Amino acid sequence: MQNLGHTRSSYQRDHLLLTPDTFIRAPLPGMKNATAIVHVGPAAGAAFTQYTVELKPQGSFQLGDHQTFLYVLDGAVTALGKALTAGQYAYLPPGAQEIIAAEQFGRVAVIEKPFDGFESTAPAAFTGDERGTEPKPLLGDDALAVRALIPDNPAFDFAVNTLTFQPGASLPMVELHIMEHGLLMLEGEGIYRLNEHWYPVTAGDFIYMAPYCPQWFCALGKKPAKYILYKDWNRHPFSS
Ligand code: UGY
Ligand code: MN
């Protein structure tokens, strides 16, 4: 734990890198035998919230008022009456009041976003399995596979994708866009460029990118690098 004051974590005007050595665990209201690592929220300027929940045996937590996306990282949890294991996920509309529970243990990535879609009501709840989603090459690059976990439907006001980079693969360009991102590194390692900083990143790290943060990634090492990525989507720029 003692790193003589050194960490890769960094908080800048338009991005945030949080590495596991700086994670602080605290339960959120309604959590039982569970704790949360809050990665980002309005306090850092984000229009969404992302946290990781760690559940012990008989652990549970209740969803808040906003629409929620859950992605199981480890273990097993029950949501919408289904047992979900690593790589499986669920979407819940606002006000679902769902209780997510683990019999043994679970680790879940949670994204919450106030609904701001084209339609007046949010889409219905659903569950899915990443293994059942079709990998699509990004801009024709077979070394970079994108899996969309949220249906391509304008009723949704955000997207969650996983991106898997073969060693040496990179984003085809430095991206600079109005959408913000929450990113959790799931596997492997690489270099993330965020604005004028180049960070070595590895599995377990979290990144927040504010609107217009210049961004680029290249996978290093001998194994693929993979991350799960939130972005606001299908929204007019006048939306809050
Ligand atoms: O979809 C995206 O904006 C994505 N390619 N960005 C990223 O990976 N930083
Ligand atoms: Mn992007």
Which labels suit this protein?
mainly beta, 8-stranded antiparallel β-sheet, 52% strand, binds manganese (II) ion, 240 residues, binds (2S)-amino(carbamoylamino)ethanoic acid, Jelly Rolls, 2 domains, 0% helix
Characterize the structure shown.
- It is a single chain.
- A hairpin with a 2-residue loop joins strand 1 and strand 2 (15-18).
- This protein has 240 residues and is mainly beta.
- The strands form three sheets. The chain has an eight-stranded antiparallel β-sheet, with no helix packed on it. Strands 3, 4, 5, 6, 7, 8, 9 and 10 form an eight-stranded antiparallel β-sheet that branches.
- Helices cover 0% and strands 52% of the residues.
- It starts with 9 loop residues before the first strand and ends in an 8-residue tail after the last strand.
- It has two domains: 22-130, Jelly Rolls; 134-232, Jelly Rolls.
- (2S)-amino(carbamoylamino)ethanoic acid binds at residues 163, 171, 175, 181, 215, 229, 231.
Q: Helicity range of the residues?
A: under 10%
CATH secondary-structure class of the largest domain: Mainly Beta
Strand order within the widest beta sheet = 1-2-17-14-19-13-12-11
Q: Give the helix/strand class.
A: mainly beta
Give the overall form. globular
- Rg, Å, rounded: 17 Å
Strand portion: over 45%
Tell me the number of helical segments per DSSP (H or I, 4 or more residues long). 0
Integer average pLDDT: 96
Count structural domains. 2
- Small-molecule components bound: (2S)-amino(carbamoylamino)ethanoic acid, manganese (II) ion
